[in-house]
Design a protein that fits this description.
Elements (H helix, E strand, L loop, with lengths): L2 E2 L12 H14 L12 E4 L4 H18 L5 E7 L9 E2 L4 E4 L2 E4 L2 H9 L4 E2 L14 H7 L4 E7 L4 H15 L4 E6 L4 E2 L12 H20 L3 H11 L5 H13 L6 E7 H9 L6 E8 L1
Parallel strand pairs: 1-5, 2-9, 3-8, 3-9, 4-7
Antiparallel strand pairs: 2-12, 4-8, 5-6, 10-12, 11-12
Length: 290
């Protein structure tokens, strides 16, 4: 049986079991779900930076799911394709994933159904160096210890929408409680990222948050996956646009009509709050549920 071993444990998040659990519990304790949640949750969008920066934001989504659904059978985790350059979504279809919290099994039957829907390919090797899915898995293991996963890397192309619709159809058919997670960060802004259309400084970072990030967020909340892909291509406001679009398309297919924004921040705001320092660069993070 193939086992995907962690590649960013000890870097993006703690490499030891106890430290992982402690950190996740701290995020969950600090989480404030102030808005009324949907009666059911079928999908969410989470960031995937190091936990120090975005773990608290991602934790809001998993906590919201737990509040609405004590048991989830399978999480389909759509990941950003940072270094995978294939044209089709890549499914990790068999075996398990390992993290400091142990192994989590692949839902092989659901993975097979996703592949049977057409457009996706089976490619475990595509996941070898990608972190955007891995950093979500310990949250699932701690909160939903019996859940299985289906990891899928999703390029920012139109087939992301058909992929999401396939999974949404499975959700609608019933039989299992399935939740889709789309993993994306938002605008990567500043000299470090070679993207400074509004210059540098506090005003430019405010524009990123209020305008550039918000454009993508609002399209997600309105369940417009095609427009999300177009916005990311034009405005560079999501590195995992395909993953987010797939999650939104799944939610729409499953009957959702709108999303709920739980949090929106960026790495500069986190640095100011936690370390008292600022930067000319920033990466946006948002938590949404559907």
């Amino acid at each position: 049986m193939q086992i995907r071993k962690p590649i960013v444990a000890g870097q993006f998040y703690p490499g030891e079991r106890d430290s992982c659990i402690t950190e996740i519990e701290q995020y969950l304790e600090a989480a404030a779900l102030s808005e009324p949640l949907p009666e059911t949750i079928v999908a969410g969008i989470v960031p995937h930076a190091g936990w120090m920066f975005s773990g608290g934001v991602a934790g809001l989504v998993f906590q919201a799911v737990k509040k609405r659904h004590e048991k989830v059978d399978t999480f389909v985790i759509f990941g950003a394709a940072h270094s995978y350059f294939g044209q089709s979504p890549a499914v990790y279809e068999a075996g398990s994933w390992m993290t400091p919290l142990g192994e989590v099994a692949i839902d092989e039957a659901l993975a097979e159904a996703v592949l049977a829907g057409g457009g996706a390919v089976s490619d475990a090797s595509a996941h070898r160096g990608e972190h955007s899915i891995e950093v979500q898995v310990p949250f699932i293991q701690l909160l939903f210890p019996d859940a299985e996963i289906v990891p899928v890397l999703v390029p920012p192309a139109q087939n992301a929408i058909s992929l999401g619709e396939t999974v949404g159809g499975v959700i609608t058919a019933g039989g299992k409680k399935i939740v889709c997670i789309g993993s994306t960060d938002l605008t990567h802004y500043g000299p470090r990222y070679g993207f400074t259309p509004m210059g540098t400084g506090a005003e430019s970072l405010q524009w990123v948050s209020d305008v550039n990030d918000r454009h993508f967020i609002d399209l997600a909340l309105k369940l417009e996956p095609g427009a999300m892909l177009a916005s990311a291509a034009e405005h560079y406001n999501a590195c995992g646009a395909g993953a987010a679009a797939a999650a939104v398309a799944a939610a729409k297919k499953a009957g959702k009509t709108k999303g709920l924004l739980l949090a929106h921040t960026n790495s500069n705001e986190v640095m100011l709050r936690k370390m008292g320092t600022s930067s000319t660069d920033a990466v946006g993070y948002a938590a949404m549920v559907f």
